[in-house]
Amino acid sequence: MTSPQELRTALAELARERVGDDLGDRLVELSRPSIRLLHAESGIGRSRLGGDPVLPPGTDWPAVRGEPLSLVAVLDLAEVAEFAQVDWLPKTGLLNFFYDLVGVWAYTPDAADSFHVAYLPDGGVPVSAPVGATVFPARPVRFAHLLTLPSQDDEVLELSKAEARRLGKLSQEWARRTARLGGWSAEAPNHQINGWPDLIQGPVWLEAYYDSQGLEWARTPEGRAEHECLARAQCWRLLLQLDSDDAMDWMWGDVGTLYYNIPDQSARAGEFGRTWLIMQCS
To answer: What is d(CA 93, CA 166) in angstroms, rounded to the nearest whole number?
Structure first.
């Protein structure tokens, strides 16, 4: 298994070669460690995609408009902490991730009913899905180290058009290089915890801020700058990214991706009800 330090060294060499020392060093400095979730052949731990949730006895199944949500993943935070340090996550407990497969998205606070993250600091029991919920096959996952790069859409770099093109090519090459180093297919679905998201459209941290507050997108540069400042102050983290995945029969929109985001302070406090889901597709 490739270590975080080995990845950082490999990224530094590739980035300087592809985009030059100055931009290459900036990208290495901005890179963020992440945990890749890969399909496993057999059960390794309690973290998995699909299957049944683990909930306290007597817990109401999350629903929207009277229809049950569907479970998409379970993460054992003790397993996550044993594999890699994610300082903003609790070190124990389970996270159950739910999603509304059939609802119409309305980008307002009302959309909070279309997803749910249930946090169990202590134990729970497997709960079978009620009638109407889609049950996906339970697939165990294994963790792998990942080092992620920002994209131009993350709005942390001011780049010329030429630099943006070079960054795009570098990101594609780095994804292929990472797959070779880690020993997985470059075509594998990109499920991950933490790090920079694999964006399809704009920055999810800013979208999560706007939508969770029920705000209209600012129409002036001054208004946008103010909202960006407020959003950055909340320090939104990528709690879980789930890619479209043929093996799971997952197709989010038009080959899209789900991004569960949470403010840093809320995650540290175990307040996972503050999670906000963004779905992007092409």
So the answer is: 41
Q: State the Cα–Cα distance between residues 99 and 69, nearest whole angstrom.
A: 5
Task: Point out which residues pair with 49 in neighbouring strands.
Answer: 73, 139
* Unique residue bearing structure tokens 């994209």: 151
Backbone angles phi, psi at 98, to 5 degrees: -115, 155
**Residue found under tokens 């996972």:** 272
- The distance of Cα 183 from the centroid of its chain, to the nearest Å, equals 21
Counting Cβ atoms within 10 Å, is residue 16 exposed (0-12), middle (13-18) or buried (19+)?
middle
Q: What is the DSSP letter of 112?
A: G
For the stretch 228-251, what's the b/e string if a residue is b when 16 or more beta carbons lie within 10 angstroms of its beta carbon? beebeebebbbbbbbbbbeebebe
Angle ∠(266,70,256) on CA atoms, nearest 5: 80
DSSP class per residue in 159-192: --HHHHHHHHHHHHHHHHHHHHHHTS-TTS--EE
For residues 70 and 62, give the distance between their C-alpha atoms in angstroms, rounded to a whole number.
9
Whole-prediction pTM: 0.95
- Segment among 5-9, 36-40, 107-111, 139-143 with least mean pLDDT: 107-111
